[in-house]
Amino acid sequence: MPPVSPAREILRRLHDVMASSTSAQAKLNAVVAVVAEQLDSEVASIYLLRDGVLELFATRGLSQAAVHVTRLAMGEGLTGVIAETREPLNLAEARAHPDFAYKPETGEEIFHSFAGVPIVRREASVGVLCVQHADPREYAEIEIEVLQTVAMVLAELIAGAGLIDDVAAAKARSAASGPARLPGLKLVDGLGRGTAVFHQPRVVIEHTVADDVEVERARVYGAFVKMREQIDGMMGQVEFLGGGDTSDVLETYKMFAYDEGWSRRINEAIDSGLTAEAAIDRVQQRTRARMRSIADPYLRERLTDLDDLSNRLIRIVSGQLGSAAQSGLRGDTILLARNLGPAELLEYDRRVLKGVVLEEGSLTAHVTIVARAMGIPVVGRVRDLRTTITDGDELLVDGSAGTVLVRPSAEMLKSFATTSALKAKRQAEYARLRDLPAVTKDGTRVALMMNAGLRDDAAALDATNADGIGLFRTEFQFLVSATLPRRERQTALYKAVLDAAGDRPVVFRTVDIGGDKAVPYMRDDAHEDENPAMGWRALRLALGRSGLMKVQARALLEAGAGRTLNIMFPMVSEPWEFDAAKALVEAQREWLTKSGRPLPAKVRYGAMLEVPALAECLDVLLPKVDFVSIGTNDLTQFLFAADRANPKLADRYDWLSPAILRFLRRVAAACAAANVPVTVCGEMGGRPLEALALMAIGIERLSITPAAIGPVKAMIRSVDLAPVRAAMAGWLEVGAPTIRADLTALADNLGVARG
């Protein structure tokens, strides 16, 4: 076992090694000797990236004849896996790992245990530091942290000695000289064209070992003061975004900035002998490693905020601007980053920021919420940004398709311009339809509602002239809050949405959290479900935590005073769940009545049909509800037992499959017979061809994204529905795998607008 303070002692000895006048090879030899002795390990080895492969540069314990002879490709063997993934490995039995690769010249056959960490420079793996032991055992967490600290020092040493391999990067730059198309994840819709600018939030740390611990501590204290002043100043910037959810985002961000535990851990790292910059980076590396093992998606996304703050603190303490925002953008810009915190995005001038491309990112990340409010297209999960794109490259971002075009050719530019012009033309055409009713050529009126989740989304009601908000997702406020949103804050949000809607109806779906939308302030409800979509979430969680639902019920009732309030419960599986949820809200209404509080003029209750089992109990449910909404996103994956997040299954099951359409037709018929309005809420209704199919089976109420209202209305006004209904009845009897081709052909023959 290592001594009580291994990091401090090992850094002291490494300081002496770094200060010596010996060669780089001699220093590497000295480092492995220090590591082996300090960790009481029989083997310590350093592999460095050279000519695109990992070469054994120094070892204590393996055969010296293997030095500069043993080589591993990236991804080959345990060492290659560490370099490729930039993740540590800690194995009691190395041979049991599927990627173990035996190199006989090293003489390592007698060693069982293995631990290794990547040596990272400028966010790229440039080598691996590893240790081995004859006895099978896992290395202690403190030993892994020592290895990671040593790896930081090694990155500095090999960079100064010119040992870092730039060959691979040079090859990549050469290969990237022509046009390229990079696929990604659609995060925020829109088109953008501009010059590539790397956000570059990270400062390359040149010195890791401190000369004077107290000087480093004072530097960190000063940096914390300045960073907190910056964060406080940013809180006022959200006014142009309308406050609301964006304000909640920055409140959470501010909470991290003032976290005493974070500053204490940085101080402890300084105590071990690291410089201020290295201490901040060391703590963040440790936090990131722990967070990667957590299944909770909310906490993983909050890691982005911690990254942002750590990078900001390093920039301040080092006196480097680092961020492109602080040096100013010149002309139309596409911003590139591994990830961004919400405050970092707010620093940019949105008049010239035309798009954002991220290596990470998700639909519920804070930066996505802020970008949507700013109207900036975003594409996430784009790989190989730094090897494919250089500063100054021209980029075309298509947030709708989730693609990035790099150094576009003349043909690509022409196509992009055509797409932009076509989109502008279509938007103009849709704008002309704004005040016209959504009525088919043969007189069928279709209600077009919009989906929303942010306070600012309500503004789209006037822009689109939608019939109302058919689905307001109340969970967004819960997902971006650091603590359970207070009742007063919930009430203010719901009232603001109702005020914006005016006489148009708003359907509030009660909170759908849990499962893959976990929140940190309900840790006792966190479960690592194998399939979170079918786990402890939505109404199941809300009924289990009745206090949460009581608060939301009161907030909704108070916000709806004097109006008609529409409340919908998500993921109802059986009628008794609806009964329990309604009873809970009614109890709150009775309490408010006794308290003399103003109440809604009427409360209408609905159920969201996402779980197929509920369709088997419609005869019991329909007499109790005022309306039904069908959530086609979850319903589809439940019907087909197919995870919609699995890319291998994404295109396997078609929304125009008879299985889906027959199911929906049966539900629509039952609702019509009971005189209960039924609405489809989901992506299916926002696609013109799919919306046509829904109309053909009797569904005449759709709640879709604001951007889809124009295209769907154009389709509705261009179609004679009678022949489509007749054809649909025949197609569904045949039971082909999909009716897409037949419906497309019929729509074209009838001259139906399909966007």
Describe this protein's structure.
The termini are far apart. Helix content is 45%, strand content 16%. By secondary structure, it is an alpha/beta fold. Among the domains are: 6-170, 2-Layer Sandwich (Beta-Lactamase), CATH 3.30.450; 433-750, TIM Barrel, CATH 3.20.20.60. β5 and β6 (124-133) form a beta hairpin. α1 packs parallel to α4, α6 runs antiparallel to α7 (245-257) and α25 (688-696) packs across α27. It contains 28 helices and 22 strands.
List the helices and strands and how they pair.
Blueprint: H1 6-19, H2 24-38, E1 43-50, E2 53-60, E3 71-73, H3 77-85, E4 89-91, E5 113-121, E6 124-133, H4 141-160, H5 167-175, E7 180-183, E8 185-188, E9 191-198, H6 213-234, H7 245-257, H8 260-271, H9 276-292, H10 297-318, H11 324-327, E10 333-337, H12 342-346, E11 353-358, H13 366-374, E12 378-380, H14 385-388, E13 394-398, E14 403-406, H15 410-432, E15 447-452, H16 460-464, E16 469-473, H17 475-479, H18 487-501, E17 506-509, H19 538-544, H20 546-559, E18 564-569, H21 575-594, E19 602-609, H22 618-621, E20 627-631, H23 632-640, H24 658-673, E21 678-681, H25 688-696, E22 701-704, H26 706-718, H27 721-734, H28 740-750
Helix pairs in contact: 1-2, 1-4, 2-4, 6-7, 6-8, 6-10, 8-9, 9-10, 15-26, 18-20, 19-20, 20-21, 25-26, 25-27
